[in-house]
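Weekly structure sync, notes
Attendees: PL, DS, HV (note-taker this week)

Item 1: LysR family transcriptional regulator
DS walked through the input record. Source organism listed as Streptomyces kaniharaensis. Sequence as pasted into the shared doc:
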Amino acid sequence: MSLNSVQRLDPRLLATLEAVVRHRSFNAAARELGYSAPAVSQQIAELERRAGLILIERRPVRATPGGMVLLDAEQRVRSALAAASVELDAMRAGTAGRIRLGAFASAAAGIVPQALAELHATYPDVQVSLSQVEPEAGYSRLKRGDMDLALSYDYDFIPMPPPRTLRRTLVARDPVVAVVPADHHLAHRDVIDLAGLASETWIAAPEAALRLELLAQMAKTPGFQARLEYDGDDFNTVLGFVAAGLCVAVMPRLALPPGSTQVVARPLADPELTRFIYTVRIDTRHAPRALLALERMLAAQALAALS
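Item 1 (cont.): predicted structure, written out as tokens:
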């Protein structure tokens, strides 16, 4: 049988073959399938023409070796379609399938793991892929359809509205804190004025801490000069510099690991700064059940992490 002949095999003709062999009768197969007996005979003849072999012995009706090969193929096709139908039903119900999740660095570490553990316990057939993305890149991927759900953020002093095609939901407020070494002369204070840090030693880490020029603008005072530079987005690296006494930093509280004894985090005063954390997805009236569940779980974990 040529490749072209195989490609021309019609699953409907295979189903007719299966019915004829199972009933051992063209007439009984025709009644089950809703065809006339001549139509069933024509379909079998067409299948034999495409296969280039006799597939059914007529008296008595039974499959030839070639017919058995196609019956095995028909069973595999039927099983695959049945499995696909179940999977599609589950996807429509939102209980299976794949969710492509995006999250910024501190959320990927501090919010996502527990939410995914809860999702897996509730929807064990849902697979999740996680990408670390910053808000702007996450919005672009959501719009392109390359991502299903994202954790995003902006700041009260730098609002960044999402595109109109996206639905963004505020889930938590993450206070921005001053981080100083544990033995720093300001570590004993309950709050720290931002302007009081202007003359400290700073690290320039635009991807892992607030930009120094923004801090100077908000404090309305000169200073905030960097003596160290870090090109990366790992908050722990910045905290390591702070713990070593090399600098101070300002960052969202979610970025701080629990139980650290080498650094001290204090709320900022004058001004108080806040990072807003959101879930974001395409703005549709309906969404898969598991996707909505994960959105709720992420929101709950964000609140728990910042309580």
